[in-house]
Amino acid sequence: MKHRIVVLGAGYAGAHSAGSLARRLDPADTEITLVNAEPDFVERLRLHQLAAGQDLRKRPLARMFAGTGVRLRLARVEAVDAEHKTVTLDDGELAYDTLLYALGSTVADHGVPGVAEHAFHVTGRAAALRLRDHLDGLGEGGRVLVVGEGLTGIETSTEIAESRPGLKVALAARGELGAWLSPGARRHLRRAFDRLGITVHEHTSVERVEPTRAIAADGTVFVSEATVWSGGFAVHPIAARSGLDVTGTGQIVVDDTMRSVSHPDVYAAGDSAYAIGENGRPLPMSCASAGFTGMRATGAIIRHLTGRTIPSAALKYYGNHISLGRRDAIIQMVDGDTRAKSWYLRGRVAAYLKNAILKGAAWGMGHPTYGMPARRHRLTAAAGRSAEAAVA
Description:
Among the domains are: about 5-35 and about 75-105 and about 235-315, FAD/NAD(P)-binding domain (3-Layer(bba) Sandwich); about 115-175 and about 185-230, FAD/NAD(P)-binding domain, CATH 3.50.50. It has about 400 residues and is of the alpha/beta class. About 45% of the residues are buried. The chain has helices spanning about 10-25, 45-50, 60-65, 115-120, 125-135, 150-165, 185-195, 285-305, 345-365, 380-390, and strands at about 5-10, 30-35, 70-75, 75-80, 85-90, 90-95, 100, 105, 145, 170, 200, 205-210, 215, 220-225, 225-230, 235, 250-255, 265-270, 275, 320-325, 330-335, 340-345. The chain is globular, with a radius of gyration of 22 Å. Its cofactor is FAD.
């Protein structure tokens, strides 16, 4: 009986992990199934570009994993039963021996009234296209309010302002714009906002969203034909209902190998995992964290099943790359405590480097088994017996 490995989610963590497992595990012993609701790999780090009106290259998962031995299951995950080791999909049920949970995250509304009903966001392809269609319908002088001064808010507001100069774009920041950047990077960020004509409302907490306006905590009313919510990320509630040990945010609590602390046959990677970095702090939800946790989980699964050790990825956060439209960007490095270093890159060089990073990541996703070894690892006898016992 083959050992059944199920990977949930084909984002930056899940797609890379499925390919890595296929590279290193012998198909005579294992059956790898990748479950994803959409047929394409979505470059989430470029969704603000899609929303602004730019077309992104399609990357069909079926083409990406053709000939790899990975079974692609296009379905939506509805539930996970960690006790009985099954996943409920919208088209049936799937049993596993080892589960890698990488379903990612969506927008966090923080319970603010009206966000779910009236606001737009860019945390998924469908959501970005919905915003794009809405922006297409706005006339000259249409007003757009982006709520949130984090990476997503900065990139979305600058991309829309550059791509659609006829719109009036504003950003509502709970604190100071770019407060977490080094002084030089912060000055460059403000110059970029001035150049693009983006109005910034600092120390502004939006507490209600309506169809054509947003209301701040102090009663200030911002007229907006399109309110874009970028106030952080929230994980899907599936893990919290699964029987797995999760945090108050719904993230799966894992050890330093990305293995669930409550269910040893479950691993988590990406935004779904509550992983502690080498600085003793939880890793932030990010593409970089997805890559590192995915590599760490993959290595642990291979080691557990084959007894072989492969190099382990460091759980570090090195910095941020922030696009400010297509021709400008900031790359800000951070120290071990995730505080901004004085060193940073800006302008066209930073934009070129960020684009190269994203292209490299997309190429890696599009070639998940590049460099597949001629001889892949067989499972240990113990791993084979455990799979047979699970079926019996």
